[in-house]
Amino acid sequence: MATPVADLLARSNALGADPRNTNYAGGNTSAAGRDVDPVTGDDVDLLWVKGSGGDLATLTEAGLAVLRLDRVRALRGVYAGVEREDEVVAAFDHCLHGRGGAAPSIDTAMHALVDAPHVDHLHPDSGIALATAADGEALTREVYGDRVVWVPWRRPGFQLGLDVAAVAAEHPEAIGCVLGGHGITAWGATSEECRARSLEIIRTAEEFIDHRTAQLAARGRHPFGEELDGYGPLPDGERRARAAALMPVLRGLASTDSPAVGHLTDTPEVLEFLARAEHPRLAALGTSCPDHFLRTKVRPMLVDLPATAPLEEVLTRLPALHEAYRADYAAYYARHAAADSPAMRGADPAVVLVPGVGMVSYGRDKQTARVAGEFYLNAINVMRGAEAVSTYAPIDEAEKFRIEYWALEEAKLARIPAPKPLATRVALVTGAASGIGKAVAARLAAEGACVVVADLDLAKAQAAADEVAGGRGSDVAVGVAVDVSDAAAVTAAVQEAVLAFGGLDLVVNNAGLSISKPLLETTERDWDLQHDVMAKGSFLVSQAAARVLIAQGMGGDVVYVSSKNSVFAGPNNIAYSAVKADQAHQVRLLAAELGEHGVKVNGINPDGVVRGSGIFAGGWGASRAKTYGVPEEELGAFYAQRTLLKREVLPEHVANAVFVLCSADLSHTTGLHVPVDAGVAAAFLR
Ligand SMILES: [Zn+2]
Questions:
Q1: In the predicted structure, residue 134 carries a pLDDT above the cut 70
Q2: Would you please indicate which residues are annotated as catalytic (active-site) residues?
Q3: 597 C-alpha vs ligand 1 centroid, how far in Å?
């Protein structure tokens, strides 16, 4: 028997692929149909509906909940009224057909109760603009006539399902409805009809908003009001530089309750909103669609200074604005919390707006931070649309609180897996396109860190970042080009790290090269090159990173990949070993200097890392092999035999040590060198 699943997935993916149709992970779709009940052999009526979580654009069969339609509809018989509607959600589990599938979402009732086999519930910016217009009901009638019906705001749940089903039954001519303060729902006899009706509702709303916007423009007006003097976007380079200067301080503030990763959005939509007169009023009203404010908090933190204000003035203003935001959020919680409300989840902003610069959004990982920014962008589109056709009037604060602190939302949060050890930490690893650096980057990413892979060659850095990210792209790792011996390039690379992830916590000075020569053959150039890259390079990287770490005020880690040769003396190595000793002492000097900022500085002394090492592949291996009189391919085994443990040292072993030094377990250790050399008595530290 053919089920409607294939058609439902195709429709869902097509609708979800266009961001005008619904926000990320917002909305849900369903199809009713028949299948054989394997228990009785009889036909059974089923509902396939997008489950909780997941995104329409990438929906697969595993993301669908499959329920017995007769049983979901039978819940009307036990429904005890809106005050106890959450109990019905628990009963959805008793309506499931078969095993597996996704957990039924709160919107399952709407899909099951509407008497049509195909239903779409979507969150299009244009539809929400109508839904949040002060006279949304009248506008809905004006725009759609009888084809689309207004349903007043009601929190998602069983009662909303009953409301929509009643509207559909009372208006057989209607193709769908606008849900006040929330979104749209459409239904159809076939999957194709349902899809076409969803698009009709969305496109008609878009055309209406565009028409009204054009009418305003013809009168020299804009939905967001007059342009404000000094609030326009800063020129590109200046804007990015200012963002990079503000973001470490903002991140430190936004991490007061729990550490967060940041995401910068400086698209024209955001900059235009912040450049016009109505933005303070609209920002204070907050977002409306439940999906929006669950991700963005009820309202953003707004920097109330023009783009033309001196940087120092903005930096000085931020702590007071943040304190006021926290007090305001705590007051919001106190105004609405009931005795059985969940505890306040933290009072820091999820979205910070900076006129002329853009928006920085925060989350427990990069994806969450990025999506919070996307949702506020949706909210900006909604506000622009609503203000073009009417006045933006989001649902009231008490309703927002009920949803934000809803027991069902609390249960969702409780299901989020425990964070990995380095979650929210932003790492910069130099020389990370290959060898030890790449192994370190991979380990830090695997432990939950966001990683900036820095290397001389941009293409190689980006390729390594892709590999390290394991398919999760720039949410996990980005590649940047840097010549660590060039101060301007180092500053730019650290700036890129800040712009990519909001700040910096963990720096690994790994970039290096090695030229093995006897004293009499070592040229001045050999000496300078090695000192430029390793001694000066790690100094420059530590200095640029320390500026960010100190501004953030969240502590941090600096790790030097030094060498056994920093303490061990042998022939034919004057330049390399001397510079390694320089780096080793930088560890102690910086540990002494940065301790007061909570920054730990430690080093690692590896030895004999041959396989996967860029240094060895670059001629050093051949040279060392010649010195020891062994074939180059046996160099790893040769080194292993010289060690106490008789083990070969691989890049992964060095990466393990970096992770341990940066983990919470070594929170009280600084100025330490950890040998990763399989045991070399002559290099024991004392
Ligand atoms: Zn919804």
A1: yes
A2: 576
A3: 45
